[in-house]
Structures are given as structure tokens and as C-alpha cells.
Amino acid sequence: MIPAGVVTAGRVTHESGSVDDLAAASPESQRAGVADLLSVPSVKEAYVLSTCNRVEAYVVATDAAVGRAALEEFFLDVATDAVVVTDHDESLRHLLSVASGLESVVLGEDQILGQVRTAYEDARTAGGIGEMLEAAVTKAIHVGERARTETEINEGIVSLGSAATKLAAESVPLENATSLVVGAGEMGRLAARSLADAGVEEVVVANRTVSRAEHLASELETDTSAAPLSALDQFASDADVVVTATGSEDPILEAQHFESDGGVDAGSRGDGDDGTEDGSSRVVVDLGQPRDVAPTAASLSTVTVYDLDDLESITAETREQRADAAREVESMVDREFDLLCEQYKRARADEVIAAMYESAEQMKKRELETALSRLEGDEFSREQREIVESMADALVNQLLAPPTKSLREAAAEDDWSTINTALQLFDPDFGGDDGPIAPPLPIGGATATETHLEATDDD
User: Where does the Glutamyl-tRNA reductase N-terminal domain lie (predicted)?
Assistant: First the structure.
């Protein structure tokens, strides 16, 4: 029996859950998350995308109920109202939208496309990518590339790092400022580059692994230095702008990091050159999830702390500027989704057609051998044998051409009854105890649904 599968997906994102929900949803690693999902019986494929703003899991299972059960277990530690579960069609469409940047905090940002690729490689390594997710994820990457090369969806602010820089610039002048970036991962790298491009005088990169901080610092075209996290007391108190983007479970910056040795706010330095009274304020943008900066830091009179929620004004402005491009990308996603559906259907029909040809080939071979054994003799040449074989091949191809066309049309119209009938005509024993062939997927025919996981008695 030709296998069938259904895609089901679950997600916790910056829109559906809190920072704590995202932290609870995050697996040990993307590979580990895929392995956990594959351990569920009847889950054939799995893909996990885990970033600071989203944790998404996709499974291919024998039916939707199996997929939903696997996702319930995967998101067991997350508040149920923070988890969004989608059916086959909506799961595929959402994946395309994610890769294109339509679901990001910063509309059209570029970082997510690389994250989708990395998650794909992680899932492949963990054995989670089969025929269905291979088609889906590679299609998503293709859509993401098209969105960024054929539209202006990524013009201007293209990451949370650049959004953080713009937000900081609204509070303090960046030119000739001293900046501190805590965290040398992808988000920290984008923030550091954005600050350097904005004209800051110095960028200090602090990281748990100093060698990674040194590598990032070497990439920047401004005065840079690297430091361990243990030196945050020194550099945080001197920086005009601080951007944090680590994966720490606990805050790494407290109020005392921004205070001078005398116990007063380090930003209170008397009149500054820019005419501000009691010195210039410093800005801290916390991009960490969970938070990197303790809430007490915001109580200091000369420290302004922003978190991801505060970036909404910047991202809303970006969304307004990119509204036309977003509509273009949405149309692109719709078209590519339709093409993905057709690709699945063609592949499914081709499997059925291959089974039909295999059955016909076996019959042809059997009858050809019988006929040739009767005709062979001293006067039956190899050329004559080739003519008979060629005639048999031509008969099979001509006889199967019309049903092949009809089967492909039936698959495109989700007419699986016709496909079953055709197969049974060529093989009366087709299906056996398993019954008729199942429809491949509810592609394009089912109403897309988006639900939250049901609360259990333990909740």
C-alpha cells in the first residue's frame, strides 16, 4: 500500500506567548526536539525551528490525531493558551510565511531565512526529513529567497539588531557613543554591526566564550574590544548604549552594573557637551528571552531599559513602510503554496502510476517470454526478437497513456475513488487486507484551522 501522511504543526511565538512561554517551549536543541518527536509511534517525519521569538514543531504522521498528540507532549510544559496548533494546509502555508519574513517581529527581516535553513540541516541530521518535509521546507526556503530578491520586504531595518539601534538612537546620540553588546550569537552580531554602521565610537563585545567575542569584534569596522561576562561591571557602567542578546536563563545585568563606585547612577556626570542636565542617559535594549536585564535596572534615573515589547513602535513603523511589499509577498506565498500542493499531488499520482506500470510490466514480461519461447528457432533472429519486444513495449505505453493522463487529472481534483478503481482494474488484489488506497493529504480541500491545545486535568 502506498503510504500517506498528514502534516500537523504547533507553535509558540512572540504573538501567542510570553517570554516565559517561549523559554518553556524551547527544546535542548533543534536536533533533540526532532528526535523527541520521532520517538512517538506513527510520526514519520519531524522539523523543529527554535529561535528567540518562536518555537515551532512540524510532524508528518499517519493522521492528524497522532500529530496533535505528539505536539501536546512536545509543548507539555507550556501554558496551553500560548500554543497554536494548525492543520495540514495552514501548517504548510504558515511555514512559507515564516521563511518569507511575514511572521517576524521585524517584518521581512533576513535572519529568519538562515534560521529556517539551519533547522532544516538539523532535522536532516536527526533523521526527521522525509519526502513530505523535504518538499515543504525547501519550498519555504525558495519562497524566502524570492521574497527578498523580488520585493522590497527587507529594505531598511532588517533585524531586531537594527531595530534596537534605531530605538536607542531615539534616546541618545549614537555618533561617538560607547556601546556594549552582550552576546556574540547571531542577534548580537547583527546588533554590533548595526551600531558600528550608525557611527558609534567604540563597540565592546562581551560573551561567555571570549574567543567568539573576539571573532565578532574583528569583523567590525570601528574601535572594538572583547571581554568576558565577568567584566560587565566595568564596561556596563561606561557604555552609553547596551544591547543584550544572550540565551541565559537568568538576568546577567543588574542595577549595580550601571552604578558608579560611589553608588550613584553612572550616567550622572554633570552637564554634558550636548547641554543635558545631570549628564546624558544611557539606553539598554534587552533582546534576550528570558530577559537579560533585571527589572530593577529600569528604576535608575539615568537608565532607560527597553525590551522586545518596546520595539513594537519601531516594528509597527516598519510594517507600515513595507505594507505594499508585504502584500506582494503574501500573493507570492499563496502562489507557491498552490504549487506545493500540486507538487504533492503529482508525486502521489506518480506513485500510483508507477505501481500501475510495474504491474503492466510484469504482465508484459511474462507474456513476452511465453510468446518468444514458442517462436524461437533456427530462423528466428535476434533482430526479429527485438521487433517483438519493441511491439510489446509500444502496446503497453499506448494502452497506459490514457489512464496515466486520467490518473493525474484525478489526483489534481482529489478524486481518489477513480484512482482506486483504476488500480483495481490492473491489479484485482490491490489493497488486500489494507483496503483501498488512502487520499494522500487533505491538500487544498480541507478548511484550515488554527486552535490552541486543550487544557488537561493537570492544568
Answer: 15-151
- Are 148 and 271 in a shared domain? no
Is 343 annotated to bind a ligand? Reply is no
Query: 347 or 63, which is more confident?
Result: 63
Please tell me whether 184 is known to bind a ligand. yes
> Over the stretch 429-459, which tens digit does the pLDDT of each residue have?
555 444 444 444 444 444 345 666 544 333 3
**Does the active-site annotation cover 341?**
no
Between 333 and 168, residue with greater pLDDT: 333
Helix (H) or strand (E) holding 225: strand 223-228
Domain that residue 332 falls in: 6-156+322-341+446-452
Is there a domain that residue 18 lies in? yes
Catalytic residue among 49, 52, 305, 311: 52
When divided into structural domains, the chain yields a total of: 3
Mean pLDDT of 61-89: 94
Query: pTM (2 decimals)?
Result: 0.66
Q: Which residues are paired to 242 by β-bridges?
A: 180, 284
> How far is 165 from 148, CA to CA, in rounded Å?
22
Q: How far is CA 136 from the centre of its chain?
A: 11
Please check whether residues 15 and 148 belong to one and the same domain.
Answer: yes
